[in-house]
Specification:
Blueprint: H1 9-18, H2 22-38, H3 43-49, H4 51-72, H5 77-94, H6 96-100, H7 102-116, H8 127-142
């Protein structure tokens, strides 16, 4: 078996990350995790309170799950992102004002990034590259062209 050159792990991760809405899924999962961390009640208290207490743990757990699903299965990103926005907004009522607003905002921002991600779009050239390309085209247009029959 011939030795294939191994790709550096950082480059492999960069390629994996480029094929999915990475930042959107990460923010959605982090928002759910932050809301879960703000919940301090023990399971006995949650079961005593009932469905309202259970929803305080269910919705942020669902946010984390949706964020991970976005990363694992980016083809269903539209469904996951719309569901993520609705669940994030639902935490306003069930989980300490959406994790004191931080988790709610992270979840909504991550869902919006996921919804707006386009997999087949060509990456945009940076402003610096566009300016350099425009300058090079202007220089090429200004250069006098010598006619092929006349030599100096």
């Amino acid at each position: 078996m011939p030795d294939r050159p191994r790709r550096e792990p950082r480059l492999a991760f960069r390629g994996w990350r480029a094929r999915r809405p990475f930042w959107g899924g990460l923010l959605l999962a982090l928002g759910g995790g932050e809301i879960l961390l703000t919940e301090k009640a023990s399971l006995k208290v949650v079961m005593h309170i009932g469905m309202q207490g259970l929803a305080g743990y269910l919705l942020p757990t669902l946010m984390v799950l949706l964020g991970l699903l976005v990363l694992v299965n980016p083809t269903q990103r539209l469904f996951y992102s719309v569901t993520g926005v609705l669940v994030s907004l639902g935490t306003w009522l069930t989980s300490n004002l959406g994790g004191f607003l931080l988790g709610l905002l992270l979840g909504v921002a991550g869902s919006c990034l996921t919804f707006g991600w386009l997999p087949d779009q060509e990456p945009r050239a940076g402003r610096r590259r566009r300016r350099e390309r425009a300058r090079a085209e202007r220089r090429a247009a200004r250069r006098p062209r010598a006619s092929p029959g006349i030599r100096s």
